[in-house]
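Dear Dr. H.,

I hope your travels went smoothly. While you were away I took the liberty of generating a structure for the chain from your last submission, since the lab meeting agenda had it listed for discussion. I wanted you to have the full record in hand beforehand rather than looking at slides cold. The sequence, exactly as received, is reproduced here:
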Amino acid sequence: MEAKSVNLPAALASFDAVYSPRVVATMNDYDVKIAHTAGDHVWHTHDDTDEFFLVLRGRFDIAMRDSVGTETTVVLKEGDVFVVPKGIEHKPTSPGGAVLMFEPSGTSSTGDSHDGVIPDYVDSTTGHELA
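The corresponding predicted structure, in token form, is as follows:
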């Protein structure tokens, strides 16, 4: 077994793409991912899993819609943590920053379902290996 740590600032400095998560660790059946954020993501839902966010840098807003379409937004600043419950439609937005996420391995960044066309700058992925 090779014991190797990951420095998060160095890992974030190794790529520039926004909404293109990199897997920095795997724990049990979960991936720990980091991503740069800027602009609007896409409305999406994860049917079978909660989604954990820790804001590493900047601001990260998460708009959520309930079953009747009522929207609420949680504004997260550096150091804030928030969990989007499974089945809740949500859309992240950011003026710029970086987040850390915990998700079951294989979870798509655009959910099990999403609204509309995925913008070119949003990478629909289960996560990329850290270079």
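Two observations you may find useful: The chain is about 5% helix and 50% strand. Helices lie at 8-13.

With kind regards,
E. W.
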